[in-house]
Amino acid sequence: MNRFKVLGQANNGEEAVSLFKSLSEKPDIILMDHRMPIKNGIDATKEILSLDSNAKILFASADDSVKGEALSIGAIGFTTKPFSIPELIEDMEKFLNET
Amino acid sequence: MKVLVVDDKKENLYLLERMIKKIGYEVVVADNGKQALEKLNGADFKMVISDILMPVMDGFQLCRAVRSDEKFNDLLFVFYTATYVEKEDKEFALKLGADKFLRKPLEPEKFIRIIKEIILKKELSQTKPSKIVVKEEKELLKLYSERLIHKLEKKLLDLEKEIIERKRVEDALKKSEKQYYEAFRRAECYKDLFAHDINNILQNILIATQLCQFLSDNPEQQQIAAESREKIIQQVRRGANLTSNVRKLSQLEMNEINLEKRNLLPILENIVSNYRKSDIDKELDIKIEFSDENCNVLANEFLEDVFRNIFENNITHNENQIVRIKIKISREQIENKRYIRTEFNDNGIGIEDSRKKEIFRRQYSKFSIGLGLSLVQRIIDTFNGKIWVEDRVPNDYKKGSKFILLIPEVI
User: Fold this and answer.
1) CB contact residues (below 8 A), chain A span 29-58, against chain B
2) Which of A7, B104, B231, B260 is 20 to 30 A from B137, alpha carbon to alpha carbon?
C-alpha cells in the first residue's frame, strides 16, 4: 500500500491542470474522475496531455459512458466505480507496467 | 324490361346493377343526370333509380326534366339517396313527381322487395303517371334552392365538426408526445442516478470500510479510522436522502398539483429544530429573522422538501466546523405580485458564477451529484415561485452563498 506517494489532490479539472503545472516532481500516474465542477475529466486530460504527452492518466469514474472517449484521447486506462483499494492498486500497477 | 340506374359512384352502380339483374331486368347505367336523360331518350325504360347528389346534373334536376316531358309519362322514378335524407328532402322529391323516396343503405332483399312492389303496383292498378305536384317554376326553384342551401349548411357544419375533432386529436397527440418525451427524460435521469450517483456512494462506503479494516490494528492511525467511520455514516445519509428525493420527484411528476395556504415559518422552525437534534458531526448555528409571523404562501406539502434540501446543501458544502445559516424572511412585490422572500445566508464553500444557474439543473448538468437542488427548482416551479443563488458577500463567492426563494403570498 505504501508503494505510492500522493503528490497532490485537486477538487476539479481546473485545479488538476494548475496543480500539474505547478508540481516540480511530476506524478507517475494521475487518477482522474470525470464529473467535476468547472472542468470535467475529459477536458482536464486533454489539457494535461497537451502540456506533457507522457503523462499517465487513469480514469476512475462511475460514469462509464465516457470510457471510449477517455481512452481515445489518451488515458492509459479506465476503472469503473465502485472498486476496492486492492483493485485500484492492482489496476494502477498493471497500467504503469504496460505503458 | 329496362331499368336505368343513375349514380356517380362506380361501386354503387355495380351493386345496384347486380341486384336488379338478379330479378330479371335489363340494367343500363349513367353517372349523372345529363347522361341519364340522353340514355332515356334513346330507349324504352320502365324505371329510373337515381341518386340525388351528382355532378353536372343532380337527381332533383333529372326528375324535374323527366316529369316535364310527356313521353316519360309511364316511367317510374325512384330516388335512392344517402346524402339528402331529411323529411323536407323527401317532401320535395315527391312534389317533383317521384314515385318513391328510398334512403341508403337498404338490405338487398328489402330493396328488391320494394322495387318489385312499385312495379307490381303500377301494373296492377294502371295508376296514372306521377305528376309534378307543384307546377310553378318559381316555387320549384325556391324549394330546390332551399334543399341545396340546407345541404351546404349541413356540409359546413360537418366540416366544422371534423376540424374540431381533428384539432382535438392533434392536441391529444401532441400531449402524448410531450408525455413520452418527459417519461424518456425521467427514465434517463433515473438511469443516470443509479449508474453514477449510487455507484459513487458505494465507492465511498467501500473505501472507507477498507480503510477502517486496514487501520484497525494501527494505534497511530486511529484518527483516520474514526474519520472513515464518520464518512460511512455520511454516505449512508446521502444515499437515503437521494432515494427520498427520487421518490418525491416521481410523486411530483405523476400527481396533480394542488396548492393551498401554508405558513412557511412553523415549517421552517420545525426543520431547524430537527436538524439541531440530529447527529451530524458539525456544529449548527441557525438563526431565523422575520418581522411578521404570518408568512402564508400558496404551496403544498413539498415546501418542507424545499427547505430540507436547501439545508442539506448548506451543510454538505461547508468545510467549517461551525455551519452558520442565517434565514431572513420578508415581503417582496414584483409587478403587482406579492411574494414571501426567504433568504438562506451560509458560510459554505460558495458557488462560482459559472455554476450559479447550473446547480438547479440536474438533467443538463453532468457535473453535480444528487438531485436536491433540481428537485427544489421543480417544486418552486409548481408553486409559481422563483429561486436563485447569489454570493453572500457580493463578488466574493468564497465567503458563502445566499439562496433566495420567492413564493407567492396568500393573505
Assistant:
1) 34-38, 40
2) B104
Facing residue for A82 by CB, picked from B206, B211, B214: B206
Q: Is the ipTM of this complex over 0.85?
A: no
What's the CA gap between B347 and A98, in Å, rounded?
47
Residues B177-196 have pLDDT tens digits of: 998 988 887 787 777 777 77
Question: Measured between alpha carbons, how far is B213 from A61 in angstroms, rounded to an integer?
Answer: 24
Domain end among B234, B255, B276: B255
Q: Which among B222, B255, B288 is the end of a domain?
A: B255
Interface test with A, best of B188, B197, B199 (most A CBs within 10 A): B199
d(CA B398, CA B96): 96
**Across all residues in chain B, what is the average pLDDT?**
87
Pick A36's closest partner by Cβ from B197, B354, B367. B367
pLDDT tens across A54-81, in order? 999 999 988 888 999 999 999 999 999 8
Cβ contact, residue pair B355, A37, below 8 Å: yes
